[in-house]
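SECTION: protein entry
WANTED: fold as tokens:
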Amino acid sequence: MPIELRMPLLGESVTEATVSKWLKAKGEVVKEYEPLVEVNTDKVDTEIPSPVDGILLETLVPEGAAVKVGGVLALIGQPGEETTGDHRPTIGDERPQVAESIRDTPSAMRHTPSAARRSLGFISPVVAKLAAEHRLDLAQIRGSGLGGRITKKDVLAFVERGKQVIREQGDQAPPVPPSPEHPIPPSPNLIPHTAIRRRIAEHMVLSKHTSPHVTTVMEVDLSRVSAHRLANKPLFARDGVNLTFTAYFVAAIAAALKAHPTVNSSWTEEGLLLHREINIGMATSLGEEGLIVPVIKHADELSLLGLARAVNDLANRARAHKLQPDEVKGGTFTLTNHGTGGSLFATPVINQPQCGILGVGAIQKRPVVITDENLGDVIAIRPMAYLSFTFDHRILDGAAADGFLAKVVESLQNFKG
């Protein structure tokens, strides 16, 4: 009997995942523990290994489709062994993504009002992207995948047929050159949402509808932090750790959360839920893909070296899509360093169900007035940054929020290492 490869439980509260890429094709030899399929959950890519040696007899879930925990992904057996057809995967929510056709699509590929519309079912990001690039109406394409789903192969075949029609038409209908009387109309192009962008959008809208957002801003003098970093960066490098400013900000946030435990909480209708652990998420950009928030667990228990090492590790694996599902869960507070792009200050959106999020602006050398014991008030050049704290006004009032942010500033300005 074939062995079923089932969707495992990848983390707490994970109920389904999306098949990103099959690493083996039907009929290929697989070894026990060899990566067989790559799945995505909560923006984290994870490889699922083969449970046995054998032949990949059948893949039951196409790339781009969601499958629930426990669902059958594939069948593994011996050469010549046949499948019974009784294995059924449990497919998750299916959301159609349709790219509309536009003006300069070949006539054989163009949507017409008389064309019968049909339910497209699940459209993978790869298919949606191809449709957008070639300006196709997916309703015109007949799918050959599981349950009639449209595959990448179907789209490419459709495009090739369209090119053939164009070649056969030749110059039978020469185009009309543009003129003031017949200008070329603008051609909108729909870019389908990626799975990551859709999740981000849903989470941001949920947050805005859930919490009354208020932002308070303070500036911080990073002279001591900058001097400490300059002096210790070579020492950290010997341990293979890049000492970034992020480690200092995480340390300051952890200290402030210990001093103001109400900020390390979540709102519930029954009461305020105070979190015992201080788990700080750090928003990490994935470029055009979006962003992800890996979590530094028990941040208050780590030294600066430990924090720097955690920051390096999580950020690098986040950009390489190598995080585990549990590493993006359990955060009690979030840090976003928007200043890396030159932004001075921002009003970040709360990462639900947390109480608040701290934004760090660009570090700039600016003239500021300081008080010297001997000279009095003098103008000095200092590395300054704006810190913006967005908080849930159901949990905190202005005075409490300012007290927390002031503690962050104090920790950074009086940093002793």
In short: Residues 93-119 have pLDDT under 50 and may be disordered.
